[in-house]
Amino acid sequence: QSALTQPASVSGSPGQSITISCTGTSSDVGGYKYVSWYQQHPGKAPKLMIYDVNNRPSGVPDRFSGSKSGNTASLTISGLQAEDEADYYCSSYTTNSTRVFGGGTKLTVL
Amino acid sequence: EVQLLESGGGLVQPGGSLRLSCAASGLSFSSYAMNWVRQAPGKGLEWVSIISGSGVTTYYADSVKGRFTISRDNSKNTLYLQMNSLRAEDTAVYYCAKDRVTAAGTGGYFDYWGQGTLATVSS
Questions:
Q1: Where are the beta strands (DSSP E) in chain B?
Q2: B81 alpha-carbon distance from chain centroid
Q3: Degrees, nearest 5: CA angle B66-B64-A86
Q4: Which of A44, A64, A94, B11 could form a disulfide with A28 if both were Cys (CB 3.0 to 4.6 A apart)?
Q5: Which pLDDT tens digit goes with each residue over B78-110?
Q6: Of A3, A91, A97, which has the smallest distance from its Cβ to B109's Cβ?
Q7: A102 and B44 in contact by Cβ < 8 A?
Q8: How many angstroms separate the CA of residue A72 from the nearest CA in chain B?
Q9: Measured between CB atoms, does A36 come within 8 Å of chain B?
Q10: With contact defined as beta carbons under 8 Å apart, do A4 and A102 qualify?
């Protein structure tokens, strides 16, 4: 049950686009469509942003999008806004019927 | 509106036990699998355990297997986590999180989260 690999930090200016990667194996990310992404502001509970690789829950801006290629999933945020500054985590279902998170990525809006 | 409210956290000595609870409202509780996810101070999220809607099927992270037990009482709309043989590395905020699916052995995601309860293991 090794954690999925995410970059520790990414940054971008308002209005720009950024992409956060999430790399696993064929036993998790690569093997299933069950990749999800969560946003967490300091001191707050995580919030679901993307599910099943590329689906957005109601209320999540369409600036957030997800994709997957092989064992790597990605979260893209376009038109960066100050309120997007937060920690982002990916998660995947695994062959052991368990779940696994990535190590998290801190997004800084410059 | 779905609401999840955790309780039961606190300070416990290494080797001790703690029982966390998560009271759910605003949903058909037995229709959904439920999870525990933890976050050590200043660290990332770690999935801990899942239980099916019926309570029959459970899965655990290797780091807690054999020490933690997840359970639920659907008549009380409450999820539990019994934590035994606690270690310093179990110190974390523990979140309960509703799953999208009913069965624990299928893919899902965490669509609602509680605010968490802090468990501190220290002498």
A1: 3-7, 10-12, 18-25, 34-39, 45-51, 58-60, 68-73, 78-83, 92-99, 110-113, 117-121
A2: 5
A3: 165
A4: A94
A5: 999 999 999 999 999 999 999 998 887 788 899
A6: A91
A7: yes
A8: 17
A9: yes
A10: yes
Is the Cβ pair A97, B116 closer than 8 Å?
Answer: no
Tokens matching residue B107 = 């893919």
pLDDT tens-digit map of A16-60: 999 999 999 999 999 999 999 999 999 999 999 999 999 999 999
The two three-digit tokens of residue A110, written as one number: 């410059």
Contact partners, residue A58, CB within 8 Å, separation at least 6: none
- For the stretch A68-84, pLDDT in tens is 999 999 999 999 999 99
Inter-chain contact A32–B60, Cβ cutoff 8 Å? Answer: no
Distance from CA of B27 to the nearest CA of A (A): 17
Q: Which residue has the tokens 């699916």?
A: B101
